[in-house]
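One such given next:

>
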Amino acid sequence: PRVTVSFARNMSIGSGVFLGDSVSINALCRSGVSIGNNVTIKAGTKIDCSGVYSELGEGIIIGDRVGISENCFIQVRGKVHIKDDVIIGPSVMIFSENHLFGDTSKHIRQQGTSRTGVTIGPGAWLGAGAIILDGVTIGAGAVVAAGAVVTKSVEPRTVVAGNPARILANLN
C-alpha cells in the first residue's frame, strides 16, 4: 500500500520484487531504474532520480537478491550501481552528487555539481545509518559499520567504521 512510482515507463523490474509500505521511486532519469530479481525494498525507502528537472539524474541499477531495509534514501544524480547480494541496513543514505563551492564570489547553487556516481560491490553490507557519498566504490564483500560516513572508496573484504570511515579490519 501507498507505494508511489513516478515515471514508471523509465523502470524495469525483475521477478520476485517486494516494495514495502510508502516506498517512493522517482524514475525520471537518463538511463532509468533497473531492479533485478528477488529484491526487497522495505517501508519508507525513497529512490529519487531527479532533484532539479532541468538536470536529470543518470540512473540506478539494483542487482539480484538485494535487500534494502526501512527508511533508506538513495539520491540518484550520478550513476548508482548496487550489485548482486548486497544488504543495506535501515536508514542508509547514498548520495551520488556533490555541490561545487570553490568560488567565493558566487552562491553555492550557482557553481554547479560533480556527479561521479556510487558503486556498491557484490555481497557488501551497509550497516544501519551509514552514509555513502558521491565518488565512492564499496568493494565486494566489504562491511560498512552502522553510522559510518564513507567519503573514500573501500577495498573488497574490508570493514570500515567512523566519521570519516576508517579501516577496522581486513577480512581476507
User: Anything to note?
Assistant: The mean pLDDT is 96. The longest strand covers residues 166-170. The radius of gyration is 16 Å. The chain is about 0% helix and 35% strand.
